């Protein structure tokens, strides 16, 4: 008798809704985030194949066109720099480096940060204490000092940039993940798994990490522009990529020196850099709203 | 003449899945000084209907219809006019007193603010009126408590403060939305008693919204029964309980487990299976189990203080038997469950499973032993990983304990066990949030059952569920018990449910056992004063019985477990306490067939 009572009391929930489906739906309604995501995708394709479309190589010096402005006739659509190199190709090549630094360094910090933070948070107690004090000590190291030290020891090398930035960024990630883990580990489904006798690392892998992804996804989209910016800053100081290779930061630095005589050398890379940063931030904001169930109506 | 007349009230919510019609053509009226109960399960629209009257619906909600109060239509009023009525003419109290009080303001600030918002009085006059009101709701040492912050008061005390501040302006109507649902039965009895008294004294009309038919039976004069937004039945309380007209009302009444009824038949379905367990060998024995938590003391150099959550508990459990464990929140019953399955470390004592001591086992044997001891949790949704499909959730124990099984046989076992608990095999790939609370609890049971355990520990498995769903889950557990010869430890604060399912019942208070007895003995002849108070606090869904029976109300709140009273722990709230109770801790001793820890149990039984 009460079987049909339940049938009517509890309406079947509409099928196939999950956190991600819901988030996707909310995200799609956020126009800024959608446009930004498309811009990022276009940017990625452009820096990947764009350089092949130009007749010039990024390190080729066109002696007949030193410091010339945008000119369709010569094929230098963005103009050339003081050494006569094509700015269009250099901007795209620089974009490759910048986006790569952004994505690789974020990925590195993601992997180290999640495993470190989840481990510290899950075990808790003394292990947590020791692991987090190590993080505190690393936090206290001056970043610039650390980079200069690496440069002195190993010479200028793009890989070092990845290492340096990744080595600093995972600290934030580890803290965020640890905090989330601390709240997750007292949830009943984790206790249920413990009572089953599920092995510790299986619990972290199956129960803790998947439930962290919402927060992490947001943090990642906000970290990528931050990393790009840090690389630009290093390049701006002359600690970044090595000539003739370049990045957006390095191009902005070179351009800023010629700002008064040849504004295009600053404007083009700066517009590319700023657009990308804006877009990542918008996507990050959109993701944060979409993944927060409280914001959903 | 009626005070409030509601006609054709419709509440709709716009959601991404389309419009939800939460309240459909509701109509009722309320006379001056009357107590009206609105009863229904979750999702019946009982709360939304009254929230809409006060303009408190969520942003996506729209209300239509009329609600006449003092010659004005509440639904047509502007926000500023409504605000004037809210609090002063009609006030409201909510389920969770902690979230309705601002944690950053003292009780004094919050209460005087209410008065001064609506009337121009001096600070001193407002203050005096508030303290007077706090005394009226029986808050001991009201003056001292007046300047405290909400977190310094207990749950029952906070709900009293809420009632006091809602009555400050002497409203015509008090709307109480599940006012006692978050409270223990003993505190619930105090609050209901208080509301009855205030209704008599001030003539405030009360609209009580609740899912608990027992509460309605004791307090209300008239009752509305709602289901899925529709009014199913309305009438005098005695008509509703003794002569229900609508089918739904009848089913709702049938589904409620009653404290004054035996475990004879099943709650939901027809035929019962009264399995009497044979006195067999103990599957699980717990011997003098203690669990302590270190709480950092105040100040830099203060040592840690020991919170004795479980302080010397022994029990044994035979195959096919159900042991009920009851007590107020904070009595250590959940900690006991967690300590038995080793979720929290015990500080002393022994736990023997299938005749072997669990501490003495090496990791591998312990893992194997775990298969025979499973646990079910209180919050059905929280105990399922939201990122895993139901199939994976139920498969996980098999992955852990029977890695030799291939994918196909795991899937087959999982489908079988899910079908056994009433979840169709085609729902394997769904996520937990797509299921209702009752279905989630079934999935939790399936996960516990898939390894074919001998013992299942149920930690408040039905507390978060609606009455009709509760009945189904309890029936399912009883069915499974008779099919598989399971032994159950059934922890709950609802004494009626425990009576229904248990063979023996253990009563705990502040980490210690007060009484252990067979079900009949415990409910018919409770030996311990605490047991008597607990039983008398449970409301019975029978208006005549509920209003005529004599109550032993417990005064005060649970003492802090950090600093339990000397001697008998219950003595501070016990009306029979004598000097000996403070000096000497009573031992658990046999009185007739009941184990009881009370110096005066013998006297009391002889009258």
Describe the structure.
The complex is a heterodimer of chains A (297) and B (607). Chain A has eleven helices and no strands. Chain A is mainly alpha-helical and 297 residues long. In chain A, helix 2 packs across helix 11 and helix 9 packs antiparallel against helix 11. Chain A is elongated. Chain A starts with a helix and ends in a 6-residue tail after the last helix. Chain B is an alpha/beta fold. Chain B is globular, with a radius of gyration of 26 Å. About 3% of the residues of chain B have low confidence. Chains A and B meet through helix 1, helix 8 and helix 9 of A and helix 11, helix 13, helix 14, helix 16 and helix 17 of B.
Q: Which descriptors apply to this entry?
A:
heterodimer; A: 297 residues; mainly alpha; 11 helices; 73% helix; elongated; disordered N terminus; B: 607 residues; alpha/beta; eight-stranded mixed sheet; six-stranded mixed sheet; 22 strands; globular
**CA gyration radius of chain B, whole angstroms:** 26 Å
Unreliable segments of chain B (pLDDT under 50, ≥5 consecutive)? 263-278
- Biggest sheet record of chain B: 8 strands, mixed
- Total strands of chain A: the figure is 0
Coarse structural class of chain A: mainly alpha
Strand order across the largest sheet of chain B: 16-17-18-13-19-20-22-21
**From the helix content, strand content and strand pairing of chain B, which structural class follows?**
alpha/beta
Shape of chain A: elongated
Number of E-type strands of chain B: 22
Largest interface: A-B, 37 and 58 residues
Radius of gyration of chain A: 24 Å
